Amino acid sequence: MTQRTEHDNATLPMQLFFTTVQQRLALARQRYFEEGVRPSGLVGETLIQSWSRCVQARRNPNESLSFNPVTPSRAHSALQRSRLLVSSAAGELSQLETTLAGTTCSAILTDAQGVVVHAIRTAGNDDAVLMPLASRVGVDLTEEHVGTTAPGVTLRTGQACVVLGAEHFFGCLQVMYCAAAPIRDIHGQLAGVLDVSSESRPFGFDAAAVVNMYATTIENRLLRAQSTEHIVVHLQTAPTLLGTPMEGLAGLDAQGRIAWVNSAAARLLGLAYPSSGTPGEDVFGLDLAALARLTRNDSASVHRLPNGLTVWLGARMQSKDGAGPLVGLGAPGPASAGNEPKPAVPTLRDNDRHLIQQTVQACGGNVSKAARALGVSRGLIYRHLKAEGDTRGGSAAG
After folding, report:
1. Which is nearest to 191 in space by CA: 70, 336, 319, 87?
2. Model pLDDT for residues 198-230, shown as the tens digit of each residue
3. Least confident segment among 54-58, 238-242, 385-389
4. How crowded is residue 324: how many other Cβ atoms within 10 Å of its Cβ?
5. Same structural domain for residues 299 and 359?
6. Is residue 219 part of a domain?
7. Does some domain include residue 20?
8. Based on CB atoms within 10 Å of each CB, which residue in 48, 111, 310, 313 is the most buried?
9. Helix 83-100 vs helix 207-226: angle between axes, to the nearest 10 degrees?
10. Under a CB-based contact definition with an 8 Å cutoff, are residues 122 and 153 in contact?
11. How far are the Cα atoms of 27, 187, 188, 340 from residue 325, in angstroms, in the given order?
């Protein structure tokens, strides 16, 4: 019989006994923050790496935390840069607000730098303390500022993330439950992050699935809005999946090369994601003229790809003036059911109007606060509100 040495005993994994998630997380925090032992198996590797980055930045999990907005000029720049993102997301965010209306959840949209550019707060959690602070336009939600949170980790890694309760780095955020997903642009770069969060009450539904669905739909709209002078190809294995968050999208330039694909199209076409430069004829089996002819059809048709996969495929021309969705491409997305198609690229006036209305709303109707956030005069905001026939604009708090 082989005799076990003291060293062998030291390397045996300690048996872990816990009956609840709270006990498991308490043990993980004790191991990591008090004993300096990596809590592998107790929390996911993504969270351990986030905790590690926070510790390396000399943050203390017991310190107090403030959700401070960035400077007015930076907030103004973030809103300006995010106009197309926000306008592309407007329909989905409105639908998401309806979806979350019966829950205690709030939704937050940040730009690629983690600055909040839009927020939805439901009435189901009026006793919330942290969410009203965290969901203000202009607040920085990066990991460097608020530690391990779903939007902070997603901004850092570019991957969807869920952070629940004591998985947050800072102890004061252990009452939070959040799920976030990335939104990418036509270059495959992070354009923003969509987050759904609940304070004090765990999710009563699969928040990761919900936030991923809406983030994907927003991303698809942003991809189409960013495409100018492109043929946009829609494809999926079933016609009912076209026009939904599951549809594949690919943009082809004037030379017939792939300019961009979304992740669904990359999987169907067998391409790397992100992908660009591949001749469209190689992946679709159709030259540019054939794809251009497809844009004149009102509905998708069955087509066999060179890789052998049979899909439903349709196309439309995306011009600088924008173009509505191709008619007959299956069921509408969550925000467009029963609505008429809208231009993919709003005008500059539309973006300015939406930006001002959104900021005034986020500031609770206070025109002075909105003006400071945007870096413009109150008179400019009043003129925009008056031009839109908003009679409440003149009586808003000044």
Report:
1. 87
2. 999 999 999 999 999 999 999 999 999 998 778
3. 385-389
4. 12
5. no
6. yes
7. no
8. 313
9. 150
10. no
11. 52, 21, 22, 10
In a domain, 292, yes or no: yes
SS3 73: helix
Find the angle CA(29)-CA(30)-CA(33) to the nearest 5 degrees: 70
Q: Which domain holds residue 289?
A: 227-318
Same domain, 183 and 237: no
Q: 6-59 pLDDT, tens per residue?
A: 344 344 345 456 778 899 999 999 999 999 999 999 999 999 999 999 999 999
Give the span between the Cα atoms of 30 and 19, in whole angstroms.
17
What CA–CA distance (Å, rounded) separates 164 from 179?
8
Residues 6+ apart with CB under 8 A from 262: 216, 219, 220, 223, 248, 249, 250
Query: DSSP readout, 5-25?
Result: PHHHHHHSPPPP--SSHHHHH
Looking at residues 341-367, what average pLDDT do you find?
60
Cα first-last separation, the chain: 85
